[in-house]
Amino acid sequence: MTGIGPWGTPTLDEHSLELLEFGRVAAAVAAFAETEGGAKLLTEARPIGERVRRSDEHAALAEAIRREREPGAWLGTAPHDLRGLLDDRDEAGRAPLDGAELVAVRQWLEAAGVTREAWSPAALQERFPRLSREALDLPALHELRERLARALEPDGRVSDAASPALKRARAELEEGERELQHRLERWARGFGESAYVTRHQDRFVALVPAAGFSRRRAIVHDVSGSGQSLFVEPLEICESNNRLTELRAAAGDEERRVLVELRGRVLESAGELLSLEEILVHLDALRARARWAAAFGGIALEPGGERLRLVNARHAILATGSRRDRLVPLDLELGAGGRLLLVSGPNMGGKSVLLKTVGLSLALSHAAFPVLADEGSRIPEVDTLLVDLGDEQSLDQGLSTFAAHLRSLAAMAEQAGPRTLLLCDELGAGTDPEEGAALGRALVERFAARGSWAIVTTHLGSLKRLAGEIDGVVNGSLEIDPDTMEPRYRFVPGIPGASHALAMAERMGLDAGVLARARTLAPEQTRSLERLLEEVHEVRRKMDEEARGLAEARAEATQAAASHREATEEARRALEDLKRRLTRESGVILSHARELWQTIQREARRADKSRAAAADLRERIQAVEAETEALDAAADQAHRELAGEPATNGSGAHPPLGPGSRVRVRNLGLDAELVEGPDGEGKVLLRKGSWSIHSHVSQLEALAEGAATGKAGGPRPGNGIAGAPGEAERSVAGPAVTWEADQAPPLEVDLRGMEVEEALRSLDQGLDRGILHGLSELRIIHGIGRGVLRGAVERHLRDHPQVASARLGQLGEGGRGVTVARLR
C-alpha cells in the first residue's frame, strides 16, 4: 500500500537483512494484523533511517504494547482494501462502485467511529497521548456514514429507506404481485391439483396440463421438460403483468439513481477516506506488533546510547518455533570495555545463533518492531549493518564460497566506523590457517581502530589472544559441558573458548586409532591451552553458581523482610481494630449506664419502692462502672502496645503523685488537685472547685507549678449518675468519676464555636447535670450559622433517653439559635 506507514528508504544492507531472515520475522508479525493494508505494511517493513520518525514510531509502539495488556478493544477495522476501491474506476476500465463495494466503504467509516469512541475517555487520552491523538484525528464523515447506513442493506442491496420514491414503488410492486398471484391461483384451480402459479422471466404464469388446453385462452411462454405441461399467462392478467414490469423498471431506475448518488458522495470524500484508511492501517500495524510482543515477550527498544546490552534476548524465529521452550536466552554487553567481541568455542555451540540474535535484535529495533528481550536492554544507533555468515545458516541458503566471503570482508573493511555493526562468522576460515589468521588479525585491528561495533567468531587460537593486545577487543565464548561435550548455549563473557575438535570427533564416532594419532600430533602448547581454558571455564561456572546462590539467598532475605514488615503492619492494624472495638463497647456500656439512671429516676418517683430496690439498682450501676473501668484499662493497654510503650498493669509505674499535687485528668479534659491516694488499686480522690472527683492514677498527668487548672467557667465533669441525694457518679470510657455539686445548676448549655463532636459531648454533660438537679427544661445555645450544629443537636436529642421533647426557641428565648429540651 504505497504511501502508508512510517518506513522510509532502508539504510541497512538488504543482503544482510536477508541473511538475518528479517523478512521472515516481519511476515510472522504481519500475521497478527486484521487489515490487508496492515499486513502488507508489516511485510514490506524495513529499518527506519530518520531518527525523529523512528522515535515517534517507538513511542507509539510502547503505548500500543501497554494498551494491548489492558482489557477492552481500542481499534476498529474493515476487511477490504479501501484504496483499491477508490481508484479511478473509469480509467481502470472497471465498473463503478456497486452496492457491496459501497458497503465496504461504510465498514471503514464504522471502524473509524468505533475507534474514535474507544479513545473518547479523557483518562485514556492522558495515558496514551500518541495513540489517542492519532485515533481522534480520524475524519468523522458522519453524514456520509449515516447516508450509506440508511441506503444500503448489509449485503449491498439498496434499502427501502434510501428514498421515498423507491419505497413507494416497491410497496406498490409488492401489493400488485400479491394481488396478481391470488387472481392467478384462483384461475389455475380449474385445471386440477397439479396446476400451480410460478414465474417465467419476471412474469407471473400458471403451470397447467397441456392436454385439452385451449391456446386461445392464454399466452404460452414455455413447455415443461416432459411436454405434459404448459407455462401459460392468461390473457386477462397480461395488463397486470405489464404493470408489474413497469413498476420493477421504475424501482430499478430509482435504485440505480441512489447508487449513483452514493458513489458521487463517496468519491467527493475520497481524500478523507484514504486518510482514514491510512490511520486505521497504521494503528492496525501497531496493534499487530503489540500482539506479537505480548505473545512472545517483546519490548519496544529504541536505538540510542553507547552500549549494546541484551538481557535475556531470544532469537525472534527460534523463540516463536515449536522448540522455544528449550531456547537459552542471551545476556551480552559491549560498550565502555570494548566494542569488538571475539567469540570462540566448538562447532555446534551456538555461535552463529548468537550473531543472528544480535543482528536481528538491532534490525528489529531500527524498524520499530518489538525486540524479544527484557527491560534494561540497550541497542546503539547505527547507519550500517553488514553480515557475513560463513554457511549463512539459513535453511534456504547453501555454503558461501571463499570469494564471496572475501567480498563481504572487503565491504566491512571499507565501511567500518563508529555507527556500523559488523557480524562475521568464522573469521580467517576457508584458507590456509596462518594466512587466514593474519588476515583476521588485520581486519580486527581495522574494525577496532575505527571504533566499529563488531562480533566476530573464530576457531583460530592466535585470534583468541587479541583481546589482550588490541584496545577495544574483548573475548567471549559459548559454554559446553566438558564431560558430555553437549553445548549449553550460554554465553560466557571475558573468556575464550576451546575448540574441542578432537573431543567432538570422538563423540561423533571417529576411529579411535585416528584420534590417538591426532592427539600425538597436536602441539603440547595447544593441548595445554585447551586444558587451561577448560579449568578457567570450570572456575567461572562455580563462581556463577555461587553468585546465583547468593542472589537467591538475598532474594529470600528480602522476601522475609517484606513478610516481617507485613506482619508488623498487620499487628498494628489488629491493635487499632481492638482499640476501636473497645471504644465502641465503652460507648455501649455508657448507654446502659444512662438507661440505668433513667430507671433510678423513675424508681425514685415511686413512693412505694423500697430502699432495697434502690440498693439493688446501685449495685447494678457499680457493676456497669466496673465493666467500664476494665474496658478503659484494656483500651489504654492496647494504646500503649500500639505506641510501642512497655505494657503496664494495675501495679505498674505511674507518675509520682501525692496529696496537694496539681494534675491533669485526661479522660475528663480538666485540671484538679489531688486530695487522697493513690491507693493499692491506683484510685485517687481529686478536688476541682466544689466538685469531688474519683478517678484512677492511669488517667492523671502531673502539672508544672503554676499551670492552668482548667477553662474559665468551672469544670466540665461530663455525664453524671446520681447514687444518693447530693452526690453524682459518672461512668465514662475509663474509671468511674464521682463529684458533689454545691453550686446552682446551669439552666443552659452554650455550644457556640465548638466542633460537632465536642458540642455533643458538652450537650450530654449538660443534660446529665440538668437531670441531677431535677430541671424540667434545658436551654441549648447553638447559634444560627449554616445550621450544621443545630441539625446535629436536633438529631442527637431525637431519641435521647433523657429528653422527652425538643423545640426551637421562641421570641425572647433566642429564636432559631436556641433549642429548648424538655427533660424526662
How are the elements arranged and paired?
Layout: H1 14-19, H2 22-30, H3 36-43, H4 51-68, H5 82-85, H6 99-118, H7 122-127, H8 129-136, H9 142-151, H10 164-188, E1 196-200, E2 203-209, E3 218-223, E4 229-234, H11 238-268, H12 270-296, E5 308-313, E6 330-334, E7 340-344, H13 351-366, E8 384-388, H14 402-415, E9 420-424, H15 433-449, E10 453-458, H16 461-464, E11 473-480, E12 487-493, H17 501-507, H18 512-521, H19 524-605, H20 611-642, E13 662-665, E14 670-676, E15 683-688, E16 691-696, E17 700-702, E18 721-724, E19 727-730, E20 737-739, E21 748-750, H21 756-772, E22 777-781, H22 788-798, E23 803-808, E24 818-823
Parallel strand pairs: 7-10, 7-11, 8-9, 9-10, 21-22
Antiparallel strand pairs: 1-2, 2-4, 3-4, 5-6, 11-12, 13-14, 13-17, 14-15, 15-16, 18-19, 19-20, 22-24, 23-24
Main attributes of the structure:
824 residues, alpha+beta, MutS, DNA mismatch repair protein, Chain A, domain 3, Rossmann fold, 5 domains, 6-stranded mixed beta sheet, 5-stranded antiparallel beta sheet, disordered N terminus
Describe this structure in words.
By secondary structure, this protein is an alpha+beta fold. It has 5 domains: 14-141 and 269-296, MutS, DNA mismatch repair protein, Chain A, domain 3 (Orthogonal Bundle); 162-263, MutS, DNA mismatch repair protein, Chain A, domain 3 (Orthogonal Bundle); 308-508, P-loop containing nucleotide triphosphate hydrolases (Rossmann fold, 3-Layer(aba) Sandwich), CATH 3.40.50.300; 575-743, no CATH class; 745-824, Ribosomal Protein S8, Chain: A, domain 1. It is built from 22 helices and 24 strands. The protein has a 6-stranded mixed β-sheet with strand order 8-9-10-7-11-12, sandwiched between helices. A hairpin with a 2-residue loop joins strand 1 (196-200) and strand 2. Helix 10 runs antiparallel to helix 11. The radius of gyration is 48 Å and the shape is flat. The protein starts with 13 loop residues before the first helix and ends with a strand.
